[in-house]
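--- STAGE predict ---
source: upstream dedup step, 1 unique chain passed
mode: sequence only
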Amino acid sequence: MRSTRFQRPIIVTRHAAIRMAERGISDAQLLAVIDTGETRYRDETHLWAFKHLPERQDNLICAVLVLEDAVVVKTVMHHFEIKD
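--- STAGE serialize ---
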């Protein structure tokens, strides 16, 4: 997979892959979250990307990302809540 938004390959950690399987999140859905979801940055390389996917009932879907030479997906969550 490659992110159009970040112009980098995507690396899914083992932990994130397990969470995706447990939560029924496909590669295509993850890519939609990364490339077209809203983002909140913790700092210049750590962020959350999240998106409501109309085909899912457990929204928001969120990916925790680290921007390095690749987009590293650390984990994937569902039932995500935005806290201000």
